[in-house]
Specification:
By secondary structure, the chain is of the alpha/beta class. 48% of the residues lie in helices and 17% in strands. The longest helix is centred in the first third of the chain and has 26 residues.
Length: 148
Amino acid sequence: MQYLILRKYLLKFSLGIFFLFFAWNLYSQEIRGLTSKEFYEQYGNKLHDESLLIIDGRTEAMFDRERIGNAVNIDADSEDLLEQLEQHMDQSVIVVYCTTIRRTTDIVNKLKGIYEGEIIFIIDGVRGWKLNNLPVNKGEVISLLEAW
């Protein structure tokens, strides 16, 4: 009788471990920090590829001056940050960078709650990118007359 009870508990325990392992793998998320140089070595050929979403978390003015690849601008300090991020949940890989790590961390923390794909953040940001002489896309210079 005790053998049957023990066997029953072992079966329940084994099933519990199996489902826990399955759930862990189902909802696990890969978040990696790379230096600008490491990122460029691994993904430099995809900077203008539609399959890779690059988010620039700086202000619009900073983004307009220069950006990495085909980055989209989502200011980490904007009031509708979450809504803007939700528009890009169909991407398999999201890359985030800013000037410093503070804005990057804010965006990555928001993504962790709503996105299940791979997240890569550039540790040294656009400063490290420029220090390593990696290519940036320069924005257009608009004169005051054109702005009016």
